[in-house]
Amino acid sequence: MNLPPFELVTDAESLALCLAALRGEPLLAIDLEANSMFAYRERVCLIQLSTPTQDFVIDPVEPLDLEPLGRILADPAVQKVFHAAEYDLILLKREYGWELHNLFDTMWASRILGYQRYGLANMLEQLYGVKLDKRFQKSDWCKRPLTPAQLQYAQLDTHYLLQLRHDLHGQLTKAGLLAEASETFTQQSRIELNDQPFDPDNFWNLHGVRDLTRRQQAILKELFVYREQVAQRTNLPLFKVMADRTLLELAQLEPTSLAQLNSVHGMSNGQIRRRGARILQAVQRGQAAPLPTRPRHNRKRTPEAVLNRYEKLHNWRKETAVSRGVESDVILSRQALWDIAGGNPNSMATLSKIKSIGEWRCQTYGEEILAVLQQFRNH
User: Is 265 helix (H, G, I), strand (E, B) or coil?
Assistant: First the structure.
């Protein structure tokens, strides 16, 4: 694979050259690499950008002032081209406060067009015969130094994106689906962060908690809190501290000695040596703690009529998707189905007020949706 050399941006001088090349470009391809598999507090580890003639790999782990880049990306006159934008948009908003508009998502474009294999590697191979090396997908991207092979992998994530965008844009236009895609891209740009603080009572959500005695549940809660504390202190992801299965086995075993920990799934000798004593202390705290009671949520029960409308709408969506040769959420999102079922609109005017639908989908599917809802009024 003959790729042009990319520009690695690690200091103020190379960043200035990069920004100069980006300014004035109407289209920019962008991708990120993060370290969610390796850190409790994930962060952006690389920012890859491509113009039609140049590829840049920016290293934000270095002390760079990225505000000028943020202003370029925030410019609504510049179209930002992603493949699967949602996760990257969340990362950019969380870490830098950037909100991006005027997007083109090649993954969603592929899905709207009915491609069955729409991952970036699949699309590049199908359309251009380019094969991506997947070895580095699960790299620790914040670990330095990065190898030349890793950096080339990162370059490839944006190198072909503008060409892919051009070709998919043409296909969408030819199929009369560009308005649908544009509406989807606009909805994607409305990112809301939903970062919830740690809640000790979330241990009730672990699979298998109902199989424990109430005393074992108290122990599990203490172990759940201990794992969170270790993850925050060491900046390790939860599963690298202790797996859910390990917590459950510890709660069931109620160990009183380090030797007993050897029989627990996921407890290595190193883990026992480093954390064994504190794990036993957490077990002891659970044995002495008040028995936990599952918190009652004040969420209202969904009315039967809403559930029935949702089921009918869900079936309609599935049938429509099959007839179009796309996946169901291309037709309407699950949230839109619930909003329609709950709102029970009886006219195009009231249906159009449900924001999660969108104008194009309202115009295209509105009469069918109203016909589904009308069935209930006729019974």
Answer: coil
Cβ-count burial 222-261 (b if 16+ within 10 Å, e if not): bbbbbbbebbeeeeebbeebbebebbbbbbbeebeeeebb
| pLDDT for 100 | 96
The CATH class given to the 304-377 domain equals mainly alpha
* 9 DSSP β-pair partners: 58
For 200-288, CATH gives: 1.10.150.80
DSSP state of 198: P
Give yes or no for a contact between 220 and 206, defined as CB atoms under 8 angstroms apart.
yes
pLDDT tens-digit map of 152-193: 999 999 999 999 999 999 999 999 999 999 999 999 999 889
Question: What are the helix (H) ranges across 160-237?
Answer: 161-175, 178-188, 214-234
Domain ranges in the chain are 7-188, 200-288, 304-377
CATH second-level architecture of 7-188? 2-Layer Sandwich (3.30)
CB count in 10 Å sphere of residue 204 = 17
Q: What are the residues whose beta carbons fall under 8 Å from the beta carbon of 114, sequence distance 6 or more?
A: 324, 325, 326
Residues 6+ apart with CB under 8 A from 182: 360
Dihedrals phi, psi of 270, to nearest 5 degrees: -65, -40
Degrees to nearest 5, angle at CA 190 with 189 and 191? 95
CA distances from 367 to 329, 347, 370 (A): 19, 9, 5
